[in-house]
Amino acid sequence: MGNDGGSIPTRRELVREAARNPTSAELKETQQEQHEWSWKNCPLSHRQLVRPVVSDCAGRLYNKDAVLEFLLPAADGSSGKADGEEVLGGRVKGLKDVVEVRFEVDGDGEGTSGAAGKEERWVCPVTAKQLGPSVKSVYLVPCGHAFSESAVKEVSGEECLQCNEPYTADNVIPILSSAPADIERLAARTKTLKEQGVTHSLKKAQGSSKKRKKGVGVAESAQADESNGSTPRPASTSSKVTTTGIKNAATASLTAKVLQDEDERKKRQRLGMNDNLKSLFSATEGKDANRKGKGGNDFMSRGYSIPAGAKR
After folding, report:
1. Where do runs of H (alpha helix) occur along 7-60?
2. DSSP letter string, 252-288
3. Which own/partner contact pairs does 162-166 have at CB distance under 8 Å and 24+ positions apart?
C-alpha cells in the first residue's frame, strides 16, 4: 500500500531508471542490429530482399520491384511517395541511378531467381566467404558482380573476375558501409559523376546535351543532302515516335507485373466505391417512381410523405 497519506514516496521509488545517454556498447549493438536488418530486408517495401536486388550510389540494397513501384506515378495520395523519398534521399530518380547487384548463390539455388520466404546464401565467388554483415562486401560498376573486399584487393587488376568487364578503383562500391572514409569517397564520386553528366550506372544522364547532339545530327544530314544535290526530305512522323518499351527482358517483365498489380488495385478500389454508392442510391427505383409521376425514393430525394389518413 502507498500514496494514501500514510507514506510519502521518494523520487527513487517513483523513478526506477533515470534517463541517460546510451553507452558505446549499446550504440554499437544497435548499429549492428540495423546493419543485419539492412542485409536481409528492403527499406522501401520492408520485405525480404529477393533477387533481382539493386543498389544506389550509397551502396544501399533494395528490391528492384520496390524501386519500380516507387518510380511509377502515385495513383492516390502521396504518403507512400514521401516515405520513399525519405528513404532514398533523392539518390534515385530513374533506373539509371541504380545498378543490379549480381550475387553468387551458394547451393542448389545457384542461377535461379530468389523466392520470397527462402533465404539465399550469397557468397564471394573467389574466397567462398558468405557475404553479409560479418564480411565487408563490394560490387563493381557497371557489371554489378559482388565480391568480398579482400578478394578485390588481393587480386590486382582492372577487369571483373567473372565477366572481364573493365572497371576503375572509383567504381568499387562498398555494400552497406558505415565507415566515414567510404561515405566521403562515395559522396565525392557522386559529385564527380554529376559534373560529368553521368549516372551511378555510368550511363548518360537525361539533359540538354543529348538534344544538342540530336540537332547537330539533323543539321549534318541536311548538309549532306544539299552537297549531294538532292532536296532535303522532311522528317517523317514515324521517326519522331519513340518507343516506350524496355529493352531488358527481365526489367520489362518486372515492370509489366508491377503495372498489372497497380491496375488490379485500382479496379478493386473502383468496385468498392461503386458498391458503397449503390447502397445509398437506387437508380432503378428512382426511374420507376419518376415514370409514375412520384418523386424518387433515393437517399438524397426521399423526403417526408404525410400519411393519407392523418388528421390535418
Report:
1. 11-14, 24-40
2. HHHHHHHHHHHHHHHHHHHHHHHHHHHHH--HHHHHH
3. 162/125, 165/140
Measure the CA–CA gap between 185 and 195, rounded to whole angstroms: 16
Cell of 113: 531467381
What amino acid is encoded at 80 in this protein?
A: G
Task: Write the CA distances from 133 to 142, 151, 251, integer angstroms.
Answer: 23, 16, 28
* Burial class of residue 199 in the structure, from the number of CB atoms within 10 Å of its CB (0-12 exposed, 13-18 middle, 19+ buried): buried
Residue 135 bridge partners (DSSP): 132
Tens of each residue's pLDDT in the chain, 312 residues: 555 666 777 776 677 666 678 888 988 899 999 999 999 999 999 999 999 999 999 999 999 999 999 998 876 655 678 888 899 999 999 999 999 999 999 875 444 445 445 678 999 999 999 999 999 999 999 999 999 999 998 887 788 989 999 999 999 999 999 899 999 999 999 999 999 999 999 999 887 454 444 444 444 454 545 455 544 454 444 433 334 456 667 677 777 777 788 777 777 766 665 555 556 555 555 445 445 445 455 555 555 566 666 655
Cα atoms found within 13 Å of the Cα of residue 61, Cβ hemisphere only: 30
Helix (H, G, I), strand (E, B) or coil at 145: strand
Q: 132 — phi, psi (to 5°)?
A: 180, -160
